[in-house]
User: Fold these one by one.
Assistant:
Number 1:
Amino acid sequence: MVTGRHHVLVTGGAGFLGSHLCRRLLDEGHRVSCVDNFATGSADNVDDLDSRVGFRLVEHDVTEPLPELGAVDAVLHLASPASPVDYRRLGIETLRAGALGTERALDVATRNGARFLLASTSEVYGDPDRHPQPETYRGNVDPVGPRSMYDEAKRYAEALTTAHAGRYGTDVAIARIFNTYGPRMRADDGRVVPTFVTQALAGTPLTVAGGGEQTRSICYVDDTVDGLLALLRSRIAGPVNLGDPHERTVRAIAERILWHTGSDSPLTTVPGAPDDPRRRCPDITLARTALGWEPGVSLDEGLRRTVAWFAAVGTAAA
Ligand code: NAD
Ligand code: UDP
C-alpha cells in the first residue's frame, strides 16, 4: 500500500502534522489531495506545495460529504483540532470532526477500496494509571471532563473505524500518536513546545503549568511521519502507539528549550490545566516489532531544528 505512485487523501493536511505528511508523500512521488477547512491549520503550511505536480488543496469541512476527488488509494484522516486550547474553544466542532468527519472519510476509503488510517491519540488513555501505556490499556477518561470533547471524539472515532472494518471489510489502521513537535506548529496553539520556544525567543517567562513535574514524551515530527507511513504500508489494523519512549518532566523540557535558545527567560509557575494528565509515556514494543519503527531524532536535534524554524519564521507568522 502506497509504495508506487498513488493518490492519497489527507484530511487536515493544512495542519502541523498533515502538512509534513503531504510534503513527504509528494517527495515520494505520490499525488496528494489535501482537504482542510482551516479551523486550526492554514494554507500557509502548504503554500510551498501549491506549485508541485500532483498536489491539490481543497477547502472543505470533513463533517460535510466530501467532494468528488477521483479514485483514491489511501485516506489519512487527521482533520480535528488537536491542541487543548483549540479543542476547548472548538468543543462541538471537535466532536463532530471525530464522529461525522471520521464517517465521511471512512466512506471514501470504503467506496474506493482504499486503506484508511485514523490519527488517534494518546489522549484515549486519559490520565493513565498504568506506565508506560501499552495499546491494551483501556484508559482513565472522564466522559464529562474538560478534555472529554477530544478524548471521547477520538475514542468514538476508533470504535467507528473498527465497526466499519467489521461491517464493510474496510482496510483500516489506527495510530495512537503521542505528543509530537516541530516546525509549522502555530506559535499560539498553546502546546508546550511552541509556547516555550516562543516565550524563550521573546525573552518572556516560560509558563510552567502546575509544578512542572507532570511528564510527557515528545517526538520529533519527522519520526512521527515515518511511523504513520510505516503503519499505512503495513497490513496491521492496530491500534499502534507512535511516540518517543523517553519520559521527561515539563520543567526539564523548559530547561532544555532555554539552553537551545540561549535565553535567560525565567520559569514562572502558572495554574495547572484542568484534568492535566500527570504522566504520559508510550510503550512502543508493538511499533518496534510489527513496523520496525522507533524514533531516530534525539531531543537535542529535534529542538535545534524547531528553534531554528521559530527563530526564522514561526514567531513572525504568529
Ligand atoms: P492541527 O490543528 O495543526 O491540524 C489539524 C488540521 O485539521 C488543521 O489544519 C485544521 O484546520 C483541520 N481541521 C479541523 N477540523 C476540520 C474539519 N472539520 N474539516 C476539515 N479540516 C479540519 O493539529 P495536528 O497537531 O497537526 O494534529 C493532526 C491530527 O493528529 C489530529 O487528528 C490530532 O488529533 C492528531 N494528533 C496529533 C498529535 C500531536 O502531538 N501533534 C498527537 C496526537 C494526535
Ligand atoms: N504546559 C505548560 N505550559 C504551557 C503549555 C503547556 O506547562 O504553556 C504543560 C501542560 O500543562 C501539559 C504539558 O505541558 O502538562 C503538555 O501540554 P500540551 O498542551 O502541549 O499537550 P497535552 O499533552 O496536554 O495535550
Note: The longest helix spans residues 91-112.
Number 2:
Amino acid sequence: MVSLKGRSFLTLKDFTPEEITYLLDLAAELKEKKKKGIPVDDFRGKNVALIFEKTSTRTRCSFEVAAHDLGMGCTYLDPSGSQIGKKESIADTARVLGSMFEGIEYRGFEQSIVEELDKYANVPVWNGLTNEYHPTQMLADLLTIREHFGDLKGRKLTYMGDARYNMGNSLMIACAKMGMHFTACTNKEYFPDEALVKQCEEYASQTGATIRLTEDVEEGTKDVDVIYTDVWVSMGEPDEVWAKRIEKLSPYQVNKAVMENAGEGAVFMHCLPAYHDLKTKVGQEVYEKFGLSELEVTDEVFESEQSIVFAEAENRMHTIKAVMAATIQ
Ligand code: CP
Ligand code: NVA
C-alpha cells in the first residue's frame, strides 16, 4: 500500500513509478468527484502557505482552488509581500511557516531553496516550479496523456526547445520513470545536462523507457504521440537572451509540418503560458524587435484539434489537489 503522508514533493526523482501512479489515480478520483459535485473537504481546519517568488496563473490558482475544495485555508505570499530571502533566511522562514501551516508551496529560483525550506519546515513542501524542475506540471501532463491515450508505458514524447531547464529536465525524468520514450529535439546547446541524462538512463533501464537527444527535426518528431514545447525564454532570464534563443531555437518551432510528421494521432502539449500570437505584451515586444509573430508554436497548431493544452491546464488543479491530499498529515 502506497502512503505519501508527510512526504515533500520536490522533484519526480524522489518518487517511484508506483508512487507516481498512486498520485495520478488519486487525481483521477478527485477529478471525477469534483465533476459529480461530490465534496472532498476532509482537510477542514488545516492551512497551507503559498510562496511565489515568480509570477503564476495556473499553479497559484490550482493550489488555491484545490486547498479550498479540500476545506483548507490558504495564504498567498508574493515576492514583495514577505520578508523571505531579504530580511529573513529560508531556514527561519521555514520554521515560522512550518509552525502555522500543514504544508508549504514554493515557486522560485534554485532547487536548493526549496530543498532548504524542506529541511527546516517539518511539514510537506511542494515545488511549484524552480529553475531546475516543475514536478506538479509533470503530474498534470502524465494524467492528460493517460486520459487521452489510455496508458503511458511505451508512449513517445518529443520535447522541442530549451531542454536544459525546468520543463525539459522534468519531462525527461517523468518519461524515464513511467516507461515512456523521451526525445529532446533541439539545438545541441540546449540538450539536457549530461549527468541528468545518465540518471534518467538508469531509471529507463528499469522501466523500458528510452532517452534520445537529436538535432534532426524530421527524425526527432517522426511518428510520436506527443509533441511538447515551452517558452524559449523562461521566467527570471534576462531579455538579452532572446536574440540567441530565436536564432538557435526557431528551427524547432512546433508548426504544421512537425505535427504532420508526428502523425494524425499525435497531440500537442505545452505547460503554458505560450507565445503563439501577438496578444501578449512580450509577444508584441519580440515582434517589434525580431519580426516574429509566433514563437515556440504557431497559432495554427495551438488552436488545432490536436492541441490538448487546456485539458492539460485543467489537470494542474486536480493533480495538485492529489499531491496535497496525499502528503498532508
Ligand atoms: N504552467 C504553469 O506553471 O503555469 P503558471 O506559470 O501560470 O503557473
Ligand atoms: N520554463 C518556463 C515554464 C513556465 C511554466 C519558465 O520557467 O518560465
Note: The two ends are 16 Å apart (CA to CA).
Number 3:
Amino acid sequence: MRLGIISALHEEQQGLVEAMEGPYKLTHGMREYFVGRLWEIDAVCVLSRIGKVAAALTTATLVEKFGVTHILFTGVAGAGDASVRVGDIVVAESLVQHDMDASPLFPRYEVPLTGLTHFLSDHHMALQLADAAHRFLEDDFALAVDPGERAVFALSGPRLHRGLIASADQFVSDKDRLDALNGALPGLLAVEMEGAAVAQACFELGIPFGVIRTISDNANEHAATDFMRFVKSVAARYAFHIVRQFCLGWQKAGVTQASRESAGT
Ligand code: SAH
C-alpha cells in the first residue's frame, strides 16, 4: 500500500512533511511531491493547489507517476448546513460537483458519460477516517489547539459528521447561494473546491479514496474573515493529528490483517 495525501493549503501540509522519515522531493507539473514514510506508512504528500482541475491533475499524477494505491484528501470547508459548526469535522461518504450542469443533455449535477451525480468514497477508508477523527477529538484536541485560539473561534465540543460534500470552482460566501445548494442537495454537510474532483478521478482510475474536512467558515458573507488565521492555528493542527491517527490505525489494521492471514483465518 502506498498512500497519497493531498492537502489544499500549505499550512495543512507543512507538519506532515516535517514528520516524514527519509523524505525526498520530486517536482513535477508545478507541484512538489514529498515521498517518504509517515508513521510506518509508505506515503506521498502533495499540495493540490485550489480548485477542481488542480485537484484532478494532482490525483492522476499521484496514481500514474507515483504509484499510490489509496488517496486521502485533507482540507477545510464551509458549513453546508446549520447543524454543522466551525471547528466540526466532516468525513465524506459521497461527493457531488455542484457546478456541473450539462442539462438538458444530462440531468443536473450528472457528470456526463459516468451516469453519476454522487461519487462514493471508499467505505473502509471513510470508517478509518471517522475513527481517526474521533480519536483526535477525544485524545488530542485539548492539547493540540491553543486555548486562546479555541476561544477566538468559539470552538467548544467540536463534532464529527459523515455524509455529503459538494465541490465547485467557487468559494461560497453568500447565504442565499448556500441556502439554494442546501435545498437542492439533500443531506449536504460541507462545501469546498476539490473533493468531488478527486472523487471522480479516483472513480475513473479505480483507486479507493477518502476526504476529510475541518469546517472553517459558514459559507456566508463572513466566510473570508480570519480564514488564514483559522487555517494556521486550528485546521493545520486538526489535519496533522487526524492523519497521524489515521496512519496509526491503518498500520494496526494491516498488522491484524496480516496476522489473521498467517494464522489462516
Ligand atoms: N484565502 C485563501 C484561498 C482559500 S480558497 C488563499 O488566499 O490561499 C478556499 C479553500 O478552502 C479551498 O481549497 C476550498 O476547498 C476550501 N473552502 C473553505 N471554505 C470554503 C467555502 N466557503 N466555499 C468553498 N470552498 C471553501
Note: Helices lie at 10-19, 52-64, 123-144, 147-152, 175-184, 195-205, 227-262.
